[in-house]
Amino acid sequence: MGFTITIYRPVCPLRAMRDDERREKRKKLIVGVVIAAIMILSTFGFVLNYATEQNKTERHNGIKYQLSGNYVVAQVNGQTLQFSHFPSQLTSLAADDVAPLLQSPVFYITSDPQDPYAKDIDTVDYYLTTILPKVKQTYPMVAFTNATGYSRPEVGCSNATASVPVVYLHYGNSTGLTRNGYCIDASARTPNDIYTLNDKMLFIILGADDGKTN
After folding, report:
1. Nearest to 80 by CA among 72, 69, 90
2. What's the CATH number of domain 90-205, 3.30.379, 2.30.30, 3.30.1450, 3.10.20?
3. In the chain, what are the domain boundaries?
């Protein structure tokens, strides 16, 4: 009859602690490598996306629109036009068949001098009346809906005609261009939307947008 003798070797507590420390260090190293890899890939993705965006261009009606810094620019008749958007970004902005009116050689841009966005509207007025005669031989004229005390003519939608349409630019609950006879109701929900409408109208005038909601 035989006997089996099993010898149990005691585990050294210090060795067990060192093993645990090594495992913990390996875990931390692996986690660190993974985090570093994610950061590198994210940075690379950002740089690649930025480079791609910087090279983004669109062509409409023979005009090239290209990103330059924070703006979209286009060269038209030797003039540099600046936009906040590409034409393709505004195709869904509400527009009600307004191209025939905006492409008129002459039209009024009118507003209320007490409008909450009056300063932004004045900026757009100045830009359109300065740039359009140089790039499109279009001559917008500025007016007020209530010109008492001002040197501008008093013009509202009721004064709009087929030969001289009117664009009424103002604050509203929504942003878009709505046609009412020979008048365009151009409402902006925020101050920034005033400049969005400026882009939209310029794109329509330059033939980059059909003036309809797509």
Report:
1. 72
2. 3.30.379
3. 15-55, 90-205
pTM of full prediction above 0.85: no
What whole-number distance in Å separates Cα of residue 183 and Cα of residue 170?
13
Residue 98 CB neighbour total at 10 angstroms? 25
Backbone angles phi and psi of 194, in degrees to 5: -60, -40
Nearest to 72 by CA among 60, 62, 63, 85: 85
Tokens linked to 12: 């050294």
Question: Is residue 186 a contact partner of residue 167, using CB atoms and an 8 Å limit?
Answer: yes
Tens of pLDDT, residue by residue over 64-121, are 999 999 999 999 999 999 999 999 999 999 999 999 999 999 999 999 999 999 999 9
Long-range contacts of 172-177 (CB under 8 A, 24+ apart): 174/94, 175/93, 175/94, 176/93, 176/94, 176/95, 176/96, 176/213, 177/93, 177/94, 177/95, 177/96, 177/98, 177/201, 177/211
Of 127, 145, 138, 99, which is closest to residue 194 (Cα–Cα)? 127
